[in-house]
Write a structure and sequence with these properties.
The protein is built from ten helices and 27 strands. It is of the alpha+beta class. 45% of the residues are buried. Bound molecules: manganese (II) ion. Manganese (II) ion (MN) binds next to loops. The site of manganese (II) ion (MN) has 6 residues, from loops.
């Protein structure tokens, strides 16, 4: 076991085995690349200033000073792995290179609660898949035909659609309830107004770490080389808008009003210990999608809902964050995906579609087999037929104004714990 010389609590998401990458700022400074250990954000530009990356054969050290990670990631996995290994070494007990340098420590280590996190990458393109069988099944049962819940293509194609990159925001950014067209089943014409069915989708995203040329395809055996790391992804969805608009071309305004990501990109290297085989795929996928072995990951996923209309209605806005107003409403796991990330990427590029460093692909809602593992309010409240009781006495079919949705993700095995931090968003009332 590796021990760190800075204090890291056993339940921290940010053990020395993690070393995720993010972008932070503090004290009005420009956003910069960083990692995190325990309660400390570690400024990588300071480590670069003090020469700790000088011998890693990085041609362009200015990547440590940019406001997005795209260029750092574009160095390629051999170098970003070396950077990660170097950071682990610098913080390992017994190594005094950094510990003994009080100036470097003073400037590099920032209390996490004094840091503002920013979008880690400039996202050029965003794609959302639909890769959890239980989720696709649940939606099929609710909206189509319980006997034929999965559409005929589902077990052959990692189904996806192109989403919108401009409205992907960092955890902590509030989102206004969207307005749009909705049509009730018993009405002939649609009406316009605030969505009454704002929902979350519990997803994981993968960040592209290597670009391809238009016309090229990523082979399934190489696909994980093109994935830099994973994030938590909340694909906010307006179900009533979605229901009316989605035929025949799929989601549009019901999805692009906001998607929220966790701030730290957890690398595939960090997640190595948590690889597991996926479900046996029957019928067998076409050869370009076949990758036997451990290409799934066992990552616990949680959704907590914090009531915005707590009966404990004090003047202090922090009272909303009292734990008695928060409820764990879903406990899922990334192992419940049917298609793995490599399969999604191989499929995405099989036609020659090019991918770019910083692109995000999300998995689709990850629902497990039990009701408590469903990854959206649509499923948890079963289309609104089973309201969810909240600790403050209120109930939820969907998300109310001022509610906050917090997603968490962590993997734990043999004393090693690696987490993602929070992916949090508060839903504000519609704008006038
Ligand atoms: Mn989605």
């Amino acid at each position: 076991m590796v021990e760190a010389w800075i204090e890291i609590k056993p339940d921290s998401d940010f053990s020395i085995y993690n070393i995720p990458f993010g972008i932070y700022s503090s004290d009005g400074n420009e956003p910069r690349p960083a990692t995190r250990l325990g309660d400390k954000v570690v400024d990588l530009s300071v480590l670069a200033d003090f020469g700790y990356f000088d011998d890693l054969d990085i041609d362009d050290l200015t990547v440590f000073y940019r406001p997005y990670l795209n260029d750092l990631i574009d160095l390629g996995k051999p170098l970003t792995s070396k950077i990660r290994d170097r950071i682990i070494a610098l913080f390992t007990s017994g190594n005094d290179d950094l510990k003994g340098n009080t100036d470097a420590c003073e400037f590099a280590l920032i209390e996490a609660d004094r840091a503002t996190m920013h979008m880690p990458v400039k996202v050029g393109n965003y794609t959302d898949f639909y890769a959890s069988e239980q989720h696709a099944f649940n939606v099929g049962v609710m909206f189509r035909d319980p006997k034929n819940a999965l559409l005929p293509n589902w077990k052959h194609i990692p189904v996806g659609y192109h989403g919108r990159a401009s409205s992907i925001v960092i955890s902590g950014t509030p989102i206004h309830r969207p307005k749009g067209q909705t049509k009730a089943d018993d009405q002939e014409f649609p009406v316009f107004g605030p969505s009454k069915q704002v929902d979350f989708e519990l997803e994981m995203g993968f960040v592209i770490g290597k670009s391809t040329a238009l016309g090229d395809s990523v082979k399934i055996s190489d696909a994980e080389d093109y994935i830099f790391g994973l994030i938590l992804f909340n694909d906010l969805s307006a179900r009533d808008i979605q229901k009316w608009e989605y035929v025949p071309l799929g989601p549009f305004l019901s999805k692009n009003f906001g998607s929220v990501i966790s701030p730290w990109i957890v690398t595939l290297e960090a997640l190595e210990p948590f690889r597991i085989p996926g479900p046996v795929q029957i019928p067998e996928a076409l050869p370009y999608l076949q990758n036997n072995g451990n290409h799934h990951f066992e990552i616990n996923l949680e959704v907590h809902l914090i009531s915005g209309n707590s009966k404990i209605n004090t003047q202090n806005s922090n009272s909303r964050l009292k734990t008695q107003d928060s409820r764990l409403i879903s406990s899922s796991n990334s192992k419940y995906l049917y298609w793995n990330f490599a399969q999604m990427l191989a499929h995405h590029t099989v036609n020659g579609c090019n991918i770019e460093v910083g692109d995000i692909c999300a998995s689709g809602t990850i629902s497990g087999p039990d009701e408590g593992a469903f990854g959206s309010m649509l499923e948890l409240s079963w289309k609104g037929t089973k309201p969810i009781p909240m600790p403050d006495g209120s109930t939820r079919k969907f998300i109310d104004d001022n509610d906050t949705i917090v997603m968490k993700g962590y993997a734990e095995k043999d004393g090693i714990r690696i987490g993602f931090g929070n992916c949090s968003v508060r839903i504000l009332p519609s704008k006038e």
